[in-house]
Amino acid sequence: MEEKLTLFKNRKRFGIEKNIDIIFKNTALVLSSFVAIILLGIILVVFFQSFESFSRYGLKFLVTSEWNPVKDEYGAFTAIYGTLVTSFLSLLITIPLGVGTAIFITEDFVPKVFREIIGSFVELLAAIPSVVLGLWAIFVMEPFFRVFFVFLHNFFGWIPIFSTEPTGRNSLLAILILVVMLLPIVTSIARDSLNQVPKKLRNAAYGIGASRWKTIFSVILPAALSGIMAGVLLALGRAMGETMAVTMIIGNSNAFSWSLLSPGYTISSMLANQFGEADGSQVSSLFYAAFVLMTLSLVVNIFAQWLVKKFSLKY
Amino acid sequence: MIKTNKKTPKNVILSLENVSISYGTFEAVRNVFCNFKKGKITSLIGPSGCGKSTVLRSLNRMNDLIPNCSLKGTVLFDGTNIYDKRVDPVEVRRRIGMVFQQPNPFPKSIYENIAFGARINGFTGDMDELVESSLRKGALWDECKDKLNESGYSLSGGQQQRLCIARTIAIEPEIILMDEPCSALDPISTLKIEETMHELKKNYTIIIVTHNMQQALRVSDMTAFFNAVEYEDGDGGKVGYLAEFNSTKKIFSSPNEKTTQEYISGKFG
Amino acid sequence: MNSLYYQKRLSRNIGDKFFTSLSVICALIAILPLIFLVTYILYKGGSQITPELFTLEPNPPGDDLDAGGINPALIGTLIITSIASIIAIPIGVGGGIYLAEYSKGGAFSKFIRFGVNVLAGVPSIIAGVFIYALIVSTKILFGSMYSGLAGGMALSILMLPTVIKTTDEGLKLVPNELRYASLGVGASMYTTILKVTLPSAFRSIATGVVLGIARAAGETAPLIFTALFSYYYITGFGDLFYEMGSLAVLIYNFALEPYDAQNKLAWAASFILVLSILSVNIFSRILAAFNEKPKRV
Lengths: 315, 269, 297
Ligand SMILES: Nc1ncnc2c1ncn2[C@@H]1O[C@H](COP(=O)(O)OP(=O)(O)OP(=O)(O)O)[C@@H](O)[C@H]1O
Ligand SMILES: [Mg+2]
Known about the structure:
The complex is a heterotrimer.
Chain A: H1 2-7, H2 15-49, H3 51-57, E1 67-68, E2 73-74, H4 77-106, H5 112-125, H6 130-156, H7 171-196, H8 199-207, H9 212-241, H10 244-249, H11 267-274, H12 281-314
Antiparallel strand pairs in A: 1-2
Helix pairs in contact in A: 2-12, 3-12, 4-5, 4-7, 4-9, 4-11, 5-7, 7-9, 8-9, 9-12, 11-12
Chain B: E1 12-23, E2 26-37, E3 41-45, H1 52-58, E4 69-77, E5 80-81, H2 89-95, E6 96-99, H3 110-120, H4 127-137, H5 141-144, H6 157-170, E7 175-179, H7 187-200, E8 205-209, H8 213-219, E9 222-230, E10 238-247, H9 248-253, H10 258-264
Parallel strand pairs in B: 3-8, 3-9, 6-7, 7-8
Antiparallel strand pairs in B: 1-2, 1-4, 4-5, 9-10
Chain C: H1 11-46, H2 71-102, H3 107-121, H4 124-136, H5 148-172, H6 176-184, H7 189-217, H8 247-255, H9 260-290
Helix pairs in contact in C: 1-9, 2-5, 2-7, 2-8, 3-5, 4-5, 5-7, 6-7, 7-9, 8-9
The structure holds adenosine-5'-triphosphate and magnesium ion.
Adenosine-5'-triphosphate binds near residues 28, 50 and 52 of chain B.
């Protein structure tokens, strides 16, 4: 018993070690609160910078579309409309495509190897920077779709959304490039949700003689629905905040038009375009627009998180 | 450590005084009084879920690591309440080592598994020597002396458990707590471990949880029988309590309580 | 007749055929353009690659038929991404350690985890707007306005949630028994974390962090009014406080130029960016697949 007192000299923890332990813990605590500080900082900074514009225009800012630095008149309706239209329409196209693809890679139509390759390929695409997609949209997509747009206008011009003569970059192209960006997100989240549906549910349906698609529609999709919904909402948040690809292809015009074939604007593309050169009250109005964008994406995001939580409680 | 003036009977190294332990609002064990004697082996027996592991973990403050686990009462070690605010739980664990129910070697080499704890405790002697002697005491030396640099995970489950025992022995704690250390072992390794325990008894105090009556009878000097009952004021769940604590001989030949008799003869549990 | 043979004309079977084909079509519509996109970028960009590209400065548009190279942008991307990593990794790993190792699922950690998810959803251009207001317009960094440093800060805001999340989740995968083992031999909490839990989770954390860095390297929106752009070589430490180019912003600027030479430079830069991001992704996927789970007997 005596010997070990000499061999183990740290049996008693010295002050230094105890202090290191405490410092380590508190440092970690401080570092984790950085997230909250930054988040709060972003909200406060954007809010206070937009204050001047907010007090001048109030909520009228949201519904008027004049954006005129010369006359010092600002309203963000065109950009808000563009943000909402491009994100919702692109989502509308993406959902069936993405969910369909997800079903394709979770069912056993083709051997597992192929499905896995397709799955990881789609996920890899989420890693391509949006500025590169923008470049591709300018030089490949736009010329490719030009004829098609003319056709759309000629035959469906009586519908307001196709009512203008297509002239190069426009909102519809922005929607299409958004589809390319959102597809990986929706597909991989839908795939994960479908994979999480317990096997026994599927077996139960097969067991009572349901066909494959009967099973998919009446058992599997409903069980995966809230997960897919959460993924869709996350994608919506991304679509609304997406900047580069949209800025490069949407045409950047503040002239309001219902038509998707005319150049448009989104809040983020407006910020990207004007922030560097703005001064005076234009800056504050841009911050106001940024605040609107942030609020939109926060609401969508928090709702998505709420869904995810509700979803994960179920299983 | 901080000395208090509590009087404990001679030869008692660790004593529980009116200890109750809860997980959140669920009370797992209630009002335990128990004196563990220095240099003896004490076994804790009882039906599953009666709180043996819970009590054992409370003896070196491992329960601190379980969220919302709380303890009322005092645990005196060396004359000090180890739940005193001024006590450093890390220091407690350096003096009261623990072997867990599931073998949990570090994802490091066998040698490092032993050396890690010793180094933390500021070992100044010859490390190779310590590794060898600890592995010998853990009845593992012959099987692994040629592969000390291989990962601890390359061993079988039983060997891993003996590595964990050797790891604990290496830091030479005053008390060794063992939670069903042999539940993953074959009879031969079990016997080896039991031999080791007899060997260790000369220098250490050992407290062991076991479901194996024969083992309790073979190795221990004292036996504590825990049981669980439903209390009227409880919220439905069973609450563990110390039903009987006596010398092993007494418990297994003529216990005072009827439930003890029933349990050791295999009537329930 | 109630035969067990497969009947083609049964409405159930027709429906199944129809929907199966529909999902195949969906997959094709989704995949084919994507394949085309990647091939096109790699082909079109790859054909512009020359050795001078890596060493020359870009020429301002219009002057010259020869566009020069992308050296400053390439170096700039490396620098700005490094700055972002230097800021985000310590904060994120430290924060993740607190969430996974210390906080016991209390209100604070719930709040922080929520915050991490919200921050991950903040549009990247807002990070740029924030740094613009905080750093660029106030000239708080020794009087400099647009700078590589400010750009790095904006990117670090985007990296932070990824790093915290991967650290938190990586550490949560480490079995508790391992912590008990270490604490049971009398290790302090910080020793346990630094010597046992963090090394066990190292691979998954490193993978996540590297993917986060790769993503940040392609981010453009936070840089266009924080780091701005520069045509000139980066020569010394002091250049951190001035406008700094990056591959991403170069692509943006030069894609919108009417000159073919600049457009080609944008394609070349895209090639380099996409190739490096994709290889990092593929490499870490392969690594992750080989080390699915820590070996336990
Ligand atoms: N981490 C925990 N959180 C909540 N309750 C727990 C926890 N650990 C144990 N319990 C509860 O406390 C009671 C006692 O558990 P304990 O593990 O101490 O029993 P035991 O006697 O060791 O059983 P066994 O012989 O099966 O190992 C049980 O009712 C158990 O459900
Ligand atoms: Mg137990």
